[in-house]
Amino acid sequence: MNYHIVTYGCQMNLHESEKIAGILREKGYDRESPPEDADIIVFNTCCIRENAENHAFGNIGALKQLKRQKKGLLIAVGGCMVQEEGKAKLLKEKFPFIDILFGTHNLAELGELIEKKRAQRRTVVSVPEARDRLEDGIVPVRTSYPNAWVNIMYGCNNFCSYCIVPYVRGREKSRRMGDILSEVRSLVEEGYKEITLLGQNVNSYRDESGADFPALLAAVASVEGDFRVRFMTSHPKDFSAELVAVMKKHKKICKHLHLPVQSGSNRILSLMNRRYTREKYLGEIALLKREIPDCEVTTDIIVGFPTETEEEFRETLSLVEEADISSAFMFIFSPRTGTKAAAMEGQIEESVAKERLSRLIELVNGKTREKSAKYVGKTVEILCEDRDEKKGLYLGRDEYGRMGYFESPENRVGDFVRLKVTRANGISLYGEVENL
Ligand code: SAH
Ligand code: SF4
Ligand code: F3S
Questions:
Q1: Looking at the domain covering 379-433, what would its CATH class be?
Q2: CB atoms within 10 A of CB 84
Q3: Which residue has its alpha carbon closest to ligand 2 atom 1?
Q4: What is the atom index within ligand 2 of the atom nearest the CA of 235?
Q5: Do the domains at 256-371 and 379-433 have one common CATH topology?
Q6: Measured in angstroms, how far is the CA atom of residue 222 from the centroid of ligand 3?
Q7: Pairing state between β 379-388 and 428-433
């Protein structure tokens, strides 16, 4: 039998879809296929912004026809959107052809839900309030070789005023360091070349034995083998000198920090409940660059937060300059029902927010281009990830996350390749391989 999974949202969800695939294989769905040929279609949804939800709604709705034509096709919808208050009910009413609805806390139960559905006509709905078991037992079907994602913690305690994640993912729960290390060791033995440690707020990792994130990161980077380590996401309020010291000491850790700032204005940061100031953020970047001068910083920014003034928006622009940001994910504030910010007075008009976003994108893209251009003539190490058939080139990433493209007569996927950069375009570098 065949399966098809549609994933929305962050790396966490991408990795969870790998676990979903693992469960499906156990239930006899042994091949991935296009939706038309699938016996089960699973949607793994996101609700971080309204457009993420709209996409999912559109695509689930579009399956009505297929479901009618194909007897026995199962449709399951899970993930963050299903966990939102009232959404499971709404989905069930709007799309009665959905067979299974499951929340974020019971991924491990999906196999049992499929069994249950096979035995009954009604939609099976299971959206528990909190997680009762970690998903440590599930063997994921990894689809991102040579990169492997490893969860180190689940959930978030921060309640940034705009964010729905704490409501749909629950409270922070860290995995045991020993379990994480044995997962990393076996991935490296299997030949994975890049390990990305995942959590909504990795800096607040703490396991039962009291191990914190710098200790975990150092231990992961000390595992023997030829691989590199990334982690995301870090929160500026929990950033520490120990983290910088570990990054500096261990060559395997990429010299890249993704540190979402959200805004450059202290008043907005406080309304966002971010619990740091512009000055603290800039101080952290200064420390990082003093210790590791060639480290690059990327960030996330929200524009058009309720009551944000033109002046305050300009503080975000100037922060991008001062912090020497290499690239950023940039968003227009999207009110999420149930969060504090959604109910705040002073919501910003869409036209104003859009105009701010385009000015910000222009600034950030300029910085990205400027930084990429500096690599022309230099040699960078790329981990080859894939082949771009359209371009007829292999591609990979350097430790900063920049894409590198090159020609090769042989398949180099999974190899560290030394690329002499001949041309730069936006975040992409093009070049010739030195170690063919
Ligand atoms: N845990 C991570 C980020 C999770 S969500 C962190 O704290 O940094 C990824 C990004 O989506 C956030 O950094 C933020 O920039 C953006 N985001 C979250 N909620 C949003 C909302 N309601 N509207 C617009 N952007 C949002
Ligand atoms: Fe959301 Fe803030 Fe938690 Fe990140 S730290 S997931 S932005 S509440
Ligand atoms: Fe990720 Fe979206 Fe959920 S960003 S945690 S999939 S709401």
A1: mainly beta
A2: 23
A3: 163
A4: 5
A5: no
A6: 30
A7: unpaired
- The C-alpha atoms of residue 37 and residue 43 are separated, in whole angstroms, by 16
Amino acid at residue number 245: A
What is the best residue among 8, 13, 14, 48 to mutate for testing ligand 1's pocket, by most ligand atoms within 8 Å of CB? 48
Domain 144-254: give its CATH code.
3.30.750.210
The CATH class for the domain spanning 256-371 reads alpha beta
**Which ligand does the CA of 332 lie closest to?**
1
Record the tokens describing residue 56, joined without a space.
């999912």
Q: Which residue minimizes the CA distance to atom 2 of ligand 2?
A: 160
Local confidence pLDDT in tens for the 436 residues of the chain? 999 999 999 999 999 999 999 999 999 999 999 999 999 999 999 999 999 999 999 999 999 999 999 989 999 999 999 999 999 999 999 999 999 999 999 898 999 999 999 999 999 999 988 876 666 778 999 999 999 999 999 999 999 999 999 999 999 999 999 999 999 999 999 999 999 999 999 999 999 999 999 999 999 999 999 999 999 999 999 999 999 999 999 999 999 999 999 999 999 999 999 999 999 999 999 999 999 999 999 999 999 999 999 999 999 999 999 999 999 999 999 999 999 999 999 999 999 999 999 999 999 999 999 999 999 999 999 999 999 999 999 999 999 999 999 999 999 999 999 999 999 998 899 999 997 6
Ligand number nearest CA of 9 is: 3
Domain ranges across the chain: 2-126, 144-254, 256-371, 379-433
Shortest-distance ligand to the CA of residue 263: 1
Q: What is the pTM of this model?
A: 0.96
User: From atom 4 of ligand 2, which residue's Cα is the shortest distance away?
Assistant: 200
**DSSP letters for 267-319:** HHHHHTT----HHHHHHHHHHHHHHSTT-EEEEEEEE--TT--HHHHHHHHHH
Confirm if 92 and 116 have CB atoms less than 8 A apart.
Answer: no
